[in-house]
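Translate sequence into structure tokens.
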Amino acid sequence: MDPLTAAFGLACIGVGGGAGYWLKKADERLQRLSETAVVLQEGQAAHFSHLNTEVNTLQQRLSHMTGLVEALRATHPEIDGALLVHSVIVQYENSTGIEQEVSRSDALEALETLISPISTESEIGAESLLTSATESLLSRLLDVFQSRQITVEALGLNPVAAHRLGHASLLLRRYDWAESCFGVAYRSSPGNQNILEALEHIALQRGDEELRRHWLEARMTVTPDQPELLRAHAHLLAKLGDAEAERDVRRLEALGVDTAADRSLLSGLRARAGSRSEALEAIELALADDPERSDDWYSYAQLLYDDGEHGKAQQAVDRCLELDRQNGEAWGLLAKLLAPMANRLDEALKAAIHAVALEAGGTELVFLKSDLLLASGKLTESNEALQRALLESPDNAELRARMASRKLLNGFIDEAQTLLDETPLGIDHALLHVIEGRLRLARADRERDGTGETDANLLGEALTAFNDGLRLDRECGVAWLGLARTKRLLGDLPGAEEDIARALRLLPDEDPSSSSEAALLALDREDISAATKHIEAAAIHGNSATISYVRGNIAARTGSLDKALMQFDEALSVDPGHIRARLNRTSILMALGEGKKVLDDTEILLDLAPSLTLARLRRAEGFMLLSEWDNARDDLKMVLEAAPHHFHALTQLGSCYISLKRPERAEGPLNEAIRLNQNHAAAWHQRGLLYLELKEMDAAFDDFQAAIRCDANHLDARLHVAATLHQQEQHEAAAAAWRAVLTIDPDHTVARTRLGDCEVKLI
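Result follows.
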């Protein structure tokens, strides 16, 4: 066989075998697919059968539910309304623009469906007008209306529907909606009591007392003699401070329906009007009618206390506390009643503690508690009580001001300033400015040099502070008083007089401070009579350090040095820290030649006020009185370091140098003193003495005459002029000079003798 043929044959056999194998495999696969298809067909048939079963079941259930819904709608027709409301809410939430307008009629229908069960005669504020579900739907619907800025007027509710929606809005506490709804209803039926009562109720809930008054009076127009309306109107007017409240109470009395509460109100009104006897009569009638009203017992006690009937007041307040142990005001009044009784100090303290714990009595009781703790020897607790009160109420400007005032009165100026500096931002009160002004005055008292220049800045700051206080409260008497004192110290006596007159009108009669200041002002005007009258008027309400101080000034001004000393002693026994009283006492002691006592007082002054230049000057003068010239010189140099312009200190330094036998050093200070103040008689006189020491007689004589020109009553200068003229045998001029001396001092023996000598020579 041909090899090629053989090869071809073998190839054909191989291909035929491969194709057969493939065909076999393909047949097997086709067989498997056929089997799978059969299985799938069977599974699909079962699945479709199951689905058909589920659909049929759901259809049956849906049919059942539809039947239930229809049954519910048949028995509860409001369900349709709820469904409508829900539909409208969803529609609004999902719609905008024109679609919103299209649904407006549905909204109105939905709203009217919800409120249809409500009666227009429903009790105002009734809580059971709607079911909880209906309340929720209505609230959601109103929220939608509000968010879309749909108003009652825009909805187009008729008056009856508006009336019903008003009640529903009250239930939901939607007072804006309620007011608008009842407003629509009111315009249709202005005399409807239910509507008027609702509008009054809304004003009450909002705290608008004037609007409430309007609606109350509208109700009273319809039913003028209704007791409850009269009573509500009376209480409201009383709260507003309108004296017409009494007319309502009198009408209740005329109608024969007045109660104990009405008589109590009448008592308060009469007390407010100043008719205390009528007030007492009314409250006694109220208590006779109902003795179990604790508030009336307190009112009765307060009236008795104000009339000075403290024994009866205590009985009344005890009865009040028997009925109500939580009446803080009663505890406060009891504390005030018991505080003056030394044997009942513990009871007073307990009462004050109760009052403060119950937040009654305000700042006054906080301070009373502190004072009672102090009187009981509990200094730490006393201070802690005030600090705790301020910590709890840091915005209480009155409390802060009074605490600072107490610190100031006790001499703790820096602590008082700290209290003011720690005032929270945004807190402003007239009393805070008043205390600031008083602090400036106190600092001025402690930094004076005797010329008035060094404390001028502090006095200017005080003026600003008092004026700031008056900007906040033009009726603040203590601010006017502070302003008056500051102007007096600055030499503005007319301005001080106007301000003190204002203070006298505003401050209570029992406050002696204004009369005391008026007395000092009168002294500055050289009106001793007026000063005496004012200070004695102040003393009617009890003596004080200030009163003794002013009396001392009056005595000194009239030349009664011993009496003046006694009054300053009395002032300092009450208040050892009274700067001006101690300073003035040093002046009296100087005049009496009590140099050692002068030094004692000035040492105390410098301990109290190290920057008080005037005290150091007085100490220098005390040293001069004791001939301790070196000490005097050293003090005067310190004065001049603090106040180089101090012409009086320069004069005294010149005098020291003369006494120290250092005349060459005396002329400089004296010349400077004269340059600073050419009207300072003492400087001219001392320089005259210096020139006498230097044997410069003409210069001395000229200076003595200059001293007389500055002060016609300068006795020593006149004596030197007269002696010089006498020595020069200018008898006529000398005689005139001696007569001038005798005009000042009629008992001057030397002057009288020398005048006689001159007159003999002139014969």
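Note: Residues 712-763 form one domain.
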